[in-house]
Amino acid sequence: MFLFSACFLSAFLTSQSQPKVAPTFVDRTAAVGLSLGGDAVCLVDIDNDGWTDICNSSGIWRNDHGKHFTRIADGGSFVAADFDNDGFVDLFDYSRMRLLHNDQGKGFTEVPLPKLAPTSSRGACWGDFDGDGFVDLYIGGFEDWDKDITYPSMILMNQGGKSFKLVWTEAKYRTRGVTACDFNRNGLLDVYASNYRLQPNQLWLNLGNAKFFDAAAEYNAIATSPGFDGGHSIGAAWGDFDNDGFMDLFSGNFAHRDSRGDQPKSRFLRNLGPTKRYHFEDKGTCGVFYQESYASPAAADFDNDGTLDLFFTTVYGMASFNTPNYPVLFRNKGHFDFADVTAGSGLEKLPATYQAAWADFDHDGRMDLVSAGKVFMNQSPPHHWLEVKLRGDGKHVNRSAIGAQVRVLLKGKTLTRQVEAGTGEGNQNDLVLHFGLGEIGGTMHIEVFWPDTRVQIVRHVHADRVYELHY
Fold first, then answer.
1. How far is CA 58 from the centre of its chain?
2. Contact, 415 vs 69, CB < 8 A?
């Protein structure tokens, strides 16, 4: 049974004749009471009050109705999902290998995990890998460079919301970012691991019952260039960048100048859909100009024009040969053509950081950005928008609806978003799905593709509203 509810938040006048104005982000960090570190960030509603909170190494910060943030608990490097299906999202701290149970938004209790091998992790993701209605964990294992140790990646399977079981480890590659997507729409959540040290990235194809096969080479998803086995990948972001209804992939690569030629640059991988068995076409850089020390990407439609844009951080403020490197805001012009629009955006010359994630903190229908230890509120010119929050039933679909996809069906294009718990290198965007609609107002139809493959069509959905859909 599908339940449906909606609440009207705000509406914007359509600008028919005004010239396009450069987007603007305003640093509101101090004004809203925040004191953030620059480490990876997880954006999620901790207490179910409808406002997106902030979790990172500086603490867990409650969003007080978009006007102020209050620190309520100690921090960590988190990815969030409701592992026991009690209706409140829980937190996994991959930096310290600890699981925190959310006590109904009032505090956190650490939950024992099975004995794990020593590891160092820079990213993890949640996902229901065996279709039992409970989210599992994929943890990326990185390295100890000085001791030449490759730490194991691992999968922890959820045992009915009561405990976790270690079912797989591998110490073959040095993983940084981990992100999951059912890119071939077969109801089985797949995992993409971004590997460093010129090692090939892995596309873990889910064969069912959490049995995975590395299909990156077969599906053309290694994200490398001729002469190299792989790149210095740090993080990747899934997204339907061309509005054809299929989830594409952006792989972010750190790339030195190399005697064999430039090391593999960052690249877009276009999902070719069912006629090509969901294989990927390597589109190359698509306007993401070269910087040596690119780090963590984060995708969102920041200007609400209907196409997914990209924010991309850097590892160093000053790279090789005294070349400055700065995070960049790229606007998607369509057809895999991206333009640098950082100038005039309020995001100019940010320091090096691995932190990048998006959420609509103040419920104004525009995506705000957390990066470099700051919260940037989006002041872009108004366009129409739609936001969708999904809730699983805790039996067939996990409560957080991780792995679900929503499509907005418009004339000539299909906007697609997914519920994900892990993106880039160790970050997490809000679980609420955001769609920019440009000048398209009125009503439209949306399609929900639930993780158990059930499809629900919701008709006559109004623009400029938030909809909550229950399985």
1. 20
2. no
Q: Report DSSP letters for 103-130, one per residue.
A: -TTS-EEEE----------S-EEEE-SS
What SS3 class is residue 85? coil
Tokens 């995506």 correspond to what residue? 367
Q: Would you say 55 and 48 are in contact if contact means Cβ atoms under 8 Å apart?
A: no
pLDDT for 466 equals 97
Report pLDDT for 412: 83
Distant-in-sequence, close-in-space partners of 307: CB < 8 Å, separation ≥ 6: 241, 243, 301, 332, 333, 334, 436
Tokens (6 digits) for 134: 């409970």
Q: Which residues make Cβ contacts (< 8 Å) with residue 30, sequence separation at least 6?
A: none
Q: How many other CB atoms are found less than 10 A from the CB of residue 364?
A: 18
The span from the CA of 255 to the CA of 295, in Å, is 10
What's the number of CA atoms in the CB half-sphere (13 Å) around residue 241?
28
Max Cα distance, the chain (Å): 62
Q: What are phi and psi of 369, to 5 degrees?
A: -125, 135
Q: Select from 89, 97, 63, 104 the least CA-distant residue to 370.
A: 63
Q: How much is the pLDDT for 382?
A: 85
Q: What is the pTM of this model?
A: 0.94
Neighbours of 346 (CB within 10 A): 18
- Spatial distance between the Cα atoms of 183 and 190, rounded to a whole number of angstroms: 7
Distance, in Å, from the CA atom of 110 to the CA atom of 175, rounded to the nearest integer, reads 26
Tokens of 412: 């000539």
For strand 175-181 and strand 190-195, is the pairing parallel, antiparallel, or unpaired? antiparallel
CA dihedral sign, ordered 389, 391, 392, 394: positive
- Residue 276, classed as helix, strand or coil, is helix
Residues 89 and 62: beta-carbon distance below 8 Å: no
What is the pairing mode between strands 466-470 and 384-391? parallel
As averages over each run of 10 residues, the pLDDT of the chain (471 residues) reads 38 38 83 94 98 98 97 97 98 98 96 95 98 98 97 98 97 98 97 98 95 97 95 98 97 87 93 98 98 98 97 97 97 97 97 98 98 97 95 98 97 94 98 97 96 96 97 96
CB 376 within 8 A of CB 362: no
